Amino acid sequence: MTRNIVVTGMGAVTPLGGDFPTSWNALIAGRDAQAPLELFDTTGCRCHHAASATLPDLPELPAKTVRRLARASRMAIPAAREALASAGLLDKESRSTLRELPFVVSTTAGGMAFGEDFLRRALNHERSHLFSQVSRYLPQQQVLDVQQVLGFAGHSVIIANACASGANAIGHAADLIASGAADCVLTGGMEALTELVFVGFDCLQATSTDRCRPFDLNRTGLLLGEAAAFLVLESAEHAQRRGAKPLCHLTGYGHTTDFFHLTQPQPEGNALVEMMRAAANQAGITPAQIGYINAHGTGTPVNDGTEAKAYRTFLGDALVSTRISSTKAAIGHTLGAAGSVEALFAVEALRTDHLPPQLNLQTPIPEIAHALVGENESSPKMHHVMSVNLGFGGSNAALLFSRSASP
Amino acid sequence: MKIDLAVIGEGAVIPAGIGVDALLHREPATALVASLRQPDQSWPVLRIDLNDPAFARWQREARLRRASPISFFLVEAAEQALAGITPADRARTGIIVVYSAGCLAYSRRFFEGIVKQGQKTASPALFPETVFNSPVSHVASVLGLNGAAYALVGDEGAWVAALKTAAVWLKTGRVRQALILGAEEFDPIVLDAYRSAGWLRRQNSASGFLTSEGAAGILVRSARSGDRRIIATARDGLIYRTKKEAAHAAECLLRESDPALPCYRSAQHNWLGSLEKRATENRPIIPSADLPYLGEAFTASAAWHTLRALNLISPEVPKLLLPVWGLNHQFGLLELESARKNEKFPR
């Protein structure tokens, strides 16, 4: 990065909790949020469970307004507010102190449930005019919801790079600051469980009917989840000027596209390796300096096998000293939010030296068996951590967070 | 924000035909399509003819075997914009595709299948093609674009965000050049959606817009001496939710611009037209009314207008303003010019 970029605030709503500290504590305690899915009927599906979030109350908003919000907004507003609050950017009325605040957001489905309902009604030839459903289904409406409730405006970008989107959003926010286009950016992702997406993964037989077991030889598929997670990124000078304390530094962002197949990575994970090298090069570090990797680790047979090979290639001899885990067994695969919420977990691991355990592991895959994090594991003071994500369409993204700006 | 992007390639797929020439000169024909909710009611729409010979080579591509129409619009517009670019340079080219609704036709078909036949029969072939970035992946794969790749979502204002994103990529050295495309595809469900908003034009009426589809794109790199088509500055983020907020945002949009700069009016036949008229009434206006009406295709429309405005730059009009009117989120403004600062347009 050409400018020193720091993280000064974090906030999240996940299936493990309505705020980031609650989610983190539950994660470290080894809890998972898998439960029967009650948001919509799944009678015709193979899988009937997911990791749903409990939506936090929004007492400052009229009940009518809350009822109209998309589920993604119900998570995004409190998560973004928590991020701004922890960065010291909220006033007494819980509104942003920065009226112009660039906002880089990721999602894959936005307010899809509104679109589903509208289509269902249209197919039933119902005569009601439900324009609010149409207008609120689009992802920019969730962006507007956050902007309006938290009182800021300005440049906004919505990245929809499938499951890598969240990491892309954070990486792009860092690029905005690095290029001088912004000094401070609110960035992250949001995703709500919807029937279209759930059935989509189910019909691909990508969901597990058992437990989600990332990096296990007997893994059978993923657990879908939902979440919203946001970070405040700033140039170090901007943070210093306003007296904000950096939580860590964002030192590297790698991003590649794997052309192999729309839904499957190239078996050796070449594009993944290239992406991780790009992030490490930008940070000016070697793989051996990375203490922990929050892996994509969906629990699907194809993804985890390729990803493990890529870690082996990228880390080489450093595989013995690097710790790896996927947090998707705990909170599910949160798609457009995955890259963001997992980046927050990686940052917190860096800050606390506590490592999220690899849940549901019975027979670890041999490529990275010794690197997978066990229960109650901590690591001696780490200097760098990485968060890795892969997505449909071959979108790959890696973020590197460091204790200090210098390698 | 100063973005200084030199436009070095252009491509367009519009209901009137294929190519930038069609964009400037050809009048599209309307077709009548029935709505889903009221099959006895039809609406005039502007469609792309996928039987156009230009699409034949893409239909032979294995990667595009199951792809939705939007992927074909995109790959054709992208290939036009990349004309003359070597494979080595393509490998260092990034791609940004902006959508409002994305792969709508397949999304509708997939969910309609769930509603009508049940979840058990959901199509695993359709679902991956409903994902926003699938067409981006197809285009990058087919055309060998190895640089960064983003799918962005929003209304027309997202086109401006995409241009700014490209400028950031170029400045940070992520790519050597960037291909930026806007695209939308038609599906009958939008007739019900736009009708509920009161946006649609009825047959034999002049009010409201015609629903349209297509794509357009520009290939850009950082501007340097001698470049003749430059997107110099980009402003976005003027957000609104109500008509009152929209009126205020429209007032603010042009406030900081040189009042002598001519303006291209882009809000044709939609509810923002009156706002645009008011915001630009004291400015010189570039005559664009004789350009064929292409209907409303959101991000594709924003790209079409940008190409048209770029093609209006001349020795007589070396600089112009292009407002970008987002229909449900934000407004933006582009400043287009014929040469970098202190350079004169050659006569």
What does the average pLDDT of chain A come to?
95
Q: Give the tally of structural domains of chain B.
A: 2
* Number of beta strands of chain A: 12
The CATH level-2 architecture of the largest domain in chain A is identified as 3-Layer(aba) Sandwich
Could you characterize what this model shows?
The complex is a heterodimer of chains A (407) and B (347). With 407 residues, chain A is α/β, with parallel strands linked by helices. Chain A has 2 domains: 5-241, Thiolase/Chalcone synthase (Peroxisomal Thiolase, Chain A, domain 1, 3-Layer(aba) Sandwich), CATH 3.40.47; 252-402, 3-Layer(aba) Sandwich (Peroxisomal Thiolase, Chain A, domain 1), CATH 3.40.47. Helices cover 34% and strands 17% of the residues of chain A. Chain A has 13 helices and 12 strands. Chain A has helices at 20-28, 63-68, 71-86, 112-123, 131-137, 139-150, 165-178, 195-203, 236-241, 270-283, 301-315, 328-331, 338-352, and strands at residues 5-13, 35-36, 49-50, 103-106, 156-159, 184-191, 227-235, 248-257, 290-294, 323-325, 384-390, 395-402. In chain A, the strands form 2 sheets. A 10-stranded mixed beta sheet of chain A has the order 5-4-6-7-1-8-12-11-9-10, sandwiched between helices. The longest helix of chain B is centred in the middle third of the chain and has 16 residues, at 157-172. The radius of gyration of chain B is 20 Å and the shape is globular. In chain B, strand 10 (319-325) and strand 11 form a beta hairpin. Chain B has 347 residues and is α+β, with helices and mostly antiparallel strands. Chain B is 32% helix and 22% strand. In chain B, helix 3 (69-81) packs across helix 6 and helix 9 packs parallel to helix 10 (273-280). Chain B has helices at residues 20-25, 56-59, 69-81, 87-90, 104-117, 134-143, 157-172, 189-197, 243-253, 273-280, 298-312; strands at residues 2-14, 17-18, 31-34, 42-45, 93-99, 149-153, 177-184, 214-222, 230-239, 319-325, 330-337. Chain B folds into 2 domains: 7-16 and 27-222, 3-Layer(aba) Sandwich (Peroxisomal Thiolase, Chain A, domain 1); 230-337, no CATH class. In chain B, strands 1, 2, 5, 6, 7, 8, 9, 10 and 11 form a 9-stranded mixed beta sheet that branches. The chains are: A alpha/beta (407), B alpha+beta (347). The interface between A and B is large, with 71 and 69 residues.
